[in-house]
Automatic annotation (TrEMBL):
Protein name: Glutamine--fructose-6-phosphate aminotransferase [isomerizing]
Domain SIS residues, every copy: 42-182, 212-353
Subunit structure, interactors included: Homodimer.
The keyword Membrane is assigned to this record: no
Active site: K358 (for fru-6p isomerization activity)
Span within the parent record: 247 to 609 of 609
Gene designation per UniProt: glmS
Any one Gene Ontology molecular-function term assigned to this protein's record: glutamine-fructose-6-phosphate transaminase (isomerizing) activity
Key words, A-Z: Aminotransferase, Cytoplasm, Glutamine amidotransferase, Repeat, Transferase
Amino acid sequence: DKGLYRHYMLKEIYEQPDVIARVLEGRIHQGHVLEQVFGSGASELFDQVKMVQIVACGTSYNAGVVARYWIEKLVGIPCMVEVASEFRYRKTVCMPGTLFITISQSGETADTLSALREAKEQNYLGFLSICNVAGSSLVRESDLAIMTNAGPEIGVASTKAFTSQLVVLMLTTLVLARRYGFDGEQEIVAQLEQLIDLTEQVLALDPQIQKMAEHFVDKHHALFLGRGTIYPVAVEGALKLKEISYIHAEAYPAGELKHGPLALVDEDMPVVAIAPNNSLLEKLQANLEEVRARGGKLFLFADSKAQVKPGNDLELITLPDVPTVMAPIIYSIPLQLLAYYVACLKGTDVDQPRNLAKSVTVE
Ligand code: F6R
């Protein structure tokens, strides 16, 4: 039931504070992540993990890319991420001690399921599934599983499933990181608990985002830029826009601009940039000035510490202060709203975009 919302997608975007609360419920005790929530035998298995291989599709894949940054930074072990349709059909090499993680909202995505079955023929240490549907094929066929508890997602474009996957991936990162001497677990758990409030604050930017959306209605292309953990957030923002508004959107790591995409920048190519406060902020700011110098119009979601010259070529939405590690979760929300409002203004079928199915059970 959509309740008072015009579309399921909007309802699901607005459910995110509750969803995050549900993801954390029963998973945290005295500032620490409980390991039994991953299933029986989880602790023994986690003790042996030396490497991680993540496999997923679409939005779930984008969540996996964020996790790669977190795992390599906080755990300090190698993490690889691949789309399932590639992984399943190529010869892959499994290093001893590798944990195989699948991420899926539905748990029925054909490519992800086949990738898991392929991987089971190799000597992976174990198989963990991060999934929103208990009892799905993916969960049944994995050794360990942790539910994202997002509740049913009806809109074809994934929103709350993505943020809930990110929260679960952070829990997963923390249980691995404690085995490698990471001492910041309590601090990050406290930040996870603050997410609920921050999510509410970001949703309150809705009217500003709705206004920003007007600039995209007559556009045919858009470029999304981010760096570090925010690069996959840019990819996810571009995916949302193309899925529901049918505007061609591409994401680039901002540092790659000079290596090609800068050639596309002109007044007809809106550039969406995501600039939380992190060690790459200054570098990103420099990339943004390159865009402006080419006549590009900038749509910026930024921390209050970002320094950008005001101008007619800039639409800025300032986000509340967010702990750096949590930025991918928080900054994905305004991008969901942007895609949503652009699609509404264009009059496309938001919940049921053409040519797409909610659960891709065939390859
Ligand atoms: C995008 C979207 C798809 C799914 C993909 C994987 O909004 O919904 O890209 O993320 O089909 O689906 P699951 O997560 O069910 O495996």
